[in-house]
Write a structure and sequence with these properties.
420 residues; alpha+beta; Creatine Amidinohydrolase; Creatine Amidinohydrolase, Chain A, domain 1; 2 domains; 6-stranded mixed beta sheet; 3-stranded antiparallel beta sheet; 12 helices; 18 strands; 34% helix; elongated
Amino acid sequence: MISRRGFLKMGSVSVAAFGFVDKILANPAPAVQTQLQNMVQGVQSLTAEDFAARMEKARRLMVENKIDGFFMEGGTTMKYFTNINWGRSERTFGAVFTAKQPPVWVCSRFELERARESIPADQEVRTWHEDESPFKLIGGIMKDAGFATGRLGIDPSSRTFVLYAIKRDVPGLEVVDGALISEGCRGTKTEKEIAYLDLANKITKMAYREGFKTLREGMTTGELSAAIRDAHARMGVSGGGGGGSFGPNTAFPHGTRTVRNLQKGDNVLVDGGCDIEDFGSDITRTVFFGKPTDRQRKVWNAVKKAQTAALKACRPGVACEEVDKAARKAIDAAGFGPEYKYFTHRLGHGIGMDGHEYPYLVRGNKLKLEPGMTFSNEPGIYIYGEFGVRIEDCMVVTKDGARYLGGLEAISVEQQFGEP
């Protein structure tokens, strides 16, 4: 069984030509299966200028926060700043950059030639042999840049052994949390990045709509997932199948080991997404196989009211926790409170290159929203022994409010995919 987060990682595509995105988003969605067409032809990839702008913003944040250098391992942050993918192993590979110079790379000597296939020719690589410390190389880079006793920010996704080894081998450096740099850049999206998110979210919603046309009594969750993956594929992406669950199993927010085939009267919950140029969607829909009961309709409507309340609360200057509070207040008013009784998780997470990323819409997060921040908006009610309902659309903060990415938001039980 593949987890929900596994499905979020399954969808990816690298495509080429950006100007076509707005035209795609403006077109009405196909009404029948045979009309689905490739949606990614003509989408422009990120350019060298885009990566340079990201690095320049990072340097501004470093100066503002008195951080002299920044270290990142292989992973999403490295991909974000350098467009280089590198898997993590026990052998530390990474890059240090400062406000004064481009990245300087740290690489095991026997991996040098492979690394050089990706690292720009004009960027320095410092190597270490198996009996040497890569962390001392990091200290040397900082020293040569004039920061032998400076402040080195560490990307928050870095592993603890890297953090402690730098402290041990380079005691002169002050090692600090680098989240102000990586999250400060990644947390607010550019116009181009938002266009990628718009398209990814629209495609997944269209794929769900196609998948729901195949519902039949006795269907397995695997068959529904296959139909949703096929719809993604026909639109040009490799999309997750939605991790579906039926009936009482939908009360488990991230699924259960219990097997249940589709039966009349069941609700159907799917949650997954796809990627456009590494920027993803995360969509949940809860539909009903047959006429919903009054109880099912009441729960669905309560969740929808909570989602709408959260969208209305989302605007620049508002604290993240206030958006969560607005959704939770609506759930309580519908009789499904208090607190986390049935709405058992935070309202939402940031979304971008990672399916779940900074910042989060949750109580206690007093970070103020800014235009360009993107989040999931996914209230839910989960009643074990009966069923669960979650409705999830991703949204972007605008200059005067917020809007859903990709349109096609849920309107009612009968209209699960409103027009853009």
